[in-house]
Amino acid sequence: MTEHADVVIVGGGAAGLMAAVAAGQAGARPLIIEKNKKPGVKILMSGGSRCNITHNCENSGIIKAFGPRGKFLHSALAGFTTRDTVRFFEDAGVPTKIEDTGKVFPVSNRAHHVLDALVAEAEQAGTTMAFLEPCLGIEPEGDQLAVITGNRRIVSNAVILTTGGLSFPGCGTTGDGYAMATRLGHTIVPTRPALVPLALREPWIAEIAGLTIPDVGLTLWDGAREAGKSRGSHLFTHQGISGPAPLNLTRFDASWHNTSALALTMDFLPGAQEAELDAWLRDESLAQGRKLLSVVLAERVPRALGDRILEECGQARDRRAAGLSRDDRKRIAGAMKGLRCGIARHLGYEKAEVTSGGVDLREVDSRSMVSLKHPALFLAGEILDLDGPIGGYNFQAAWSTGWLAGTRAAARAAESQNKSHD
Ligand SMILES: Cc1cc2nc3c(=O)[nH]c(=O)nc-3n(C[C@H](O)[C@H](O)[C@H](O)COP(=O)(O)OP(=O)(O)OC[C@H]3O[C@@H](n4cnc5c(N)ncnc54)[C@H](O)[C@@H]3O)c2cc1C
After folding, report:
1. Which residues are CB-contacts of 103 (< 8 A; sequence separation ≥ 6)?
2. What whole-number distance in Å separates Cα of residue 94 and Cα of residue 87?
3. Ligand 1: which atom is nearest the Cα of residue 382?
4. Which domains are assigned to the chain?
5. Can you tell me which atom of ligand 1 is nearest the CA of 352?
6. CB atoms < 10 A from the CB of 280, how many?
7. Pocket of ligand 1 (CB under 6 A)
8. pTM of the model
9. Atom 52 of ligand 1, residue of closest alpha carbon
10. Cα(12)–Cα(399) distance, rounded to whole angstroms?
11. 160-183: per-residue pLDDT in tens?
């Protein structure tokens, strides 16, 4: 069965829903084709089900956070800024708050309030949504495109591809859009999981599973090369580490396909100098010699971690603080400032918050999100070769690129309609 639609949006996630709002408000009648039985599944589970909608910063802060490819976002952010995100959700009945880290959340801490508001806005803008209808392919038909599903063929002058990446495949994101984009002439920059927890080689990690440290400085090593640094909160898990600082570290380019040369160093006191720690240990050793060394360390790091540091430095857990040699002090201060662990592996797409890689940005016009391979194709969201750090950056990119794609797709749909009436 062949049907016609103004604007077809393939994928009803963050970017697709926002594209629908923009297209509808610009006068088009958007149709969302979604493979799941409901939209925005990933929004619901985001930010620990609180949904970190954006970051409290200027557009330049978002662009910088995305690294060298961030400049692709200039136009999209100019049309839908971080302030627009906050205003959009507040106007839609979701009051927001800024946390100390700069992350913006709904005051209610409920991701479903964000999703409900977005869906309501899309519906109010005249969007039709088809669920449990996976798109199987997109075929060129002259200047138009045909979106193929199991039960229909929808021909349109403007198709927006927002199928996301490969992370958390249980959410419906199984990379389907890459094959569709490739079929239309696009190149896919090789993908890999990013913002993903790490398994470490050291078996002792399991002993301190559950320990959270609010501020750790991490350095990623690829052999002798320093591949990147991150800082922030850090959680020890049964297998390794998770939390913002470790997750952000996985965005850096390194030999993730073969981790034998990968290691990281953990600075548990990023605000202190090693010399200062050395002097502190010397003073404690002299003044509090009868104290257990592990009790002394517990003044600066959690006790369980301090015990582990002592073991790594060849010190018994029950040793007293008295008589610390210069070498002992150097080793302990060094481990507090740079404990080294081998990286066994990352936990893969199953546990990754985003996909690094995707549709090559050089093949998309950043001023309109239109494909440079087909005039009826628009792309937005995580399907693009863009990934940002933890902190609301990825949703901001999805909202902004979705908004721009929706606006421009509606304009193309209107133009094509006018032409056909002439
Ligand atoms: C656990 C987790 C927590 C996160 N928390 C945050 C956070 O707090 N803040 C933040 O900024 N980012 C967060 N992210 C990242 C953020 O969710 C994504 O970057 C964002 O959702 C990308 O939007 P998108 O619309 O491009 O893709 P998605 O939101 O992934 O949407 C893609 C949609 O396309 C549909 N689809 C796929 N293939 C087809 C097909 N063949 N036919 C029809 N439909 C299809 C999918 O079912 C899905 O609904 C988190 C990610 C995860 C996994």
Report:
1. 47, 52, 55, 56, 391, 392
2. 9
3. 26
4. 2-193+351-421 (3.50.50.60), 197-347 (no CATH)
5. 53
6. 16
7. 10-16, 33-36, 41-42, 45-47, 51-52, 134-135, 162-164, 167-168, 172-173, 176, 353-354, 381-382, 392-395, 398
8. 0.96
9. 353
10. 12
11. 999 999 999 999 999 999 999 999
Pocket test for ligand 1, best of 384, 395, 400, 401 (most atoms within 8 A of CB): 395
Residue with tokens 């997109």: 138
CB atoms within 10 A of CB 408: 24
Distance CA 24, CA 269 (A): 51
pLDDT by residue (tens digit) across 352-406?
A: 999 999 999 999 999 999 999 999 999 999 999 999 999 999 999 999 999 999 9
Ligand 1 centroid distance, CA of 385 (Å): 14
| CB distance 102 to 244 below 8 Å | no
Rounded CA separation 398/261 (Å): 34
DSSP 160: E
Q: Cα(173) to centroid of ligand 1, in Å?
A: 7
Q: Scanning the structure block, which residue is given the tokens 């010190």? A: 315
pLDDT digits (tens, 9 = 90+) for 220-265: 999 999 999 999 999 999 999 999 999 999 999 999 999 999 999 9
How many angstroms separate the alpha carbon of residue 36 from the centre of ligand 1?
12
Residue 88, token pair as written in the block:
């959009």
Q: Report the C-alpha gap between 377 and 379 in whole angstroms.
A: 7
Question: Which residue type does 54 have?
Answer: T
Burial of residue 283 (CB within 10 Å: 0-12, 13-18, 19+) is exposed
